[in-house]
Design brief:
alpha/beta, Udp-n-acetylmuramoylalanyl-d-glutamate--2,6- Diaminopimelate Ligase, Chain: A, domain 1, UDP-N-acetylmuramoyl-L-alanine:D-glutamate ligase, 3 domains, six-stranded mixed beta sheet
Amino acid sequence: MNLTIKEILEATKGTFVQGDQKTLVKTLSIDSRTIKPKDLYLPLTGENFNGHDFIIEAIEKKASGIIIEKSWSASNIQEIEKKYPNLNIIEVVDTLQALQNLGHFKYRRVSPKIIGITGSVGKTTTKDMISQVLGEDFSILNTKGNFNNEVGLPLTLLNLEKEHEVAVLEMGMSNLGEIQRLVEIVPPNIAVITNIGSAHIQNLKSKENILKAKMEIAGDLQKGDTLLLNGDDPLLWSIRNLDAEYEKVYYGIHKRNDFYPAKIIEEENGSIFYVEIDGETKIFELGIPGKHQITNALAAIWIGNYYNIEPETLQRGLKKVLISDMRFETHEISGAKIINDAYNASPESMEASIAVVENMKNYRRILVLGDVLELGDYSEEGHRKVGAFLSKGNFHRLITKGEDSKWIGLEAINKGFPSEKVHHVDSNEKAAELLDSWLSPKDLVLIKGSRGMKMEEIIEYIKRGRQVNA
């Protein structure tokens, strides 16, 4: 963090209780379990926890100071002041607000260009691609892991240093108003919306409301800023005539977009595509399979070109993009290729992954699909949509695991997929037993489901069983 107590007071609009305002704080921690000597401890509160309960633990671990809520300190502060006279103590009304104010303060101090990214599917991969491309010419900071919410975003901003020229930030949401708050903390210069899917439809009830929530990322865009939209998405395309003082740019596979590939060559482990940049056709290679990944790459290429990065440098950055854990992660078991795409799922992302597998013609293809969670009343419709989609492909077997995933198989059968090829199970272990009994060299298996389904366990069960029987 590299801020003095005096600067932290200014940022948080807090009240100084005791300590030395010249103390330099390098690191802020919100978790007493991982706190290190000289860290500043900021306890957060929630429905089922209160970080203030662990203040003494943080102090005993040699924290240099604490930021506490006035409502808590009223009955507790005197004892702490007496016992720890050298401890830096700041009081605030709300520690979450204080954290967000600190993030905003650090952003204002460094003033980097901000790329904000949201969308139902593809946020992380698009963020990674943009980061790699811009990182070839600029010093960048980007979102790590799932630090894309009201807590994670300001924590990310605290890592900003004076050398950072660009910050590439994911902005997630589960309800209306959440992205609006993130934009208040750090307003983007370029905002990207990757698509409008059914993730969080349980809370928001309709895709139109999801669109409204995602569009909050454009709430602070000014003249000279840009909103970059995936024009292959019907709902995003529907707002193309929306009046705004900022520039709207559409990217995607479809030739109706402002920025699209003139030609695509799909291969098993990636793709080659041609894009016109400044009147010249440039060739790009991507080491990740799937047309949806080309779409993500187009956003990165457009932004890189906007910041005057040469096409050859853009290509160099794209070549460095690596798939995150459990996002199309490939395993080999006895000559079979198993794709672990179990980080998370929505009906739209399932369809995209199925389309990639369908394009891999040299294999006997098997699908293992789990429940897509948090769909609410849309669950049956969303799962049936996946079943209808896969029924058009040529797959050897389909295993569905969970509860609502049964609708995938039922709809696939309704659309003509052979019923004898469909199997529904209620556990990862049973899915693994079935899959293991069929698995042979030259098989290609896709495993995908929501994070809560822990579908990656299927691979571990098979590996473990084969080691025992070896």
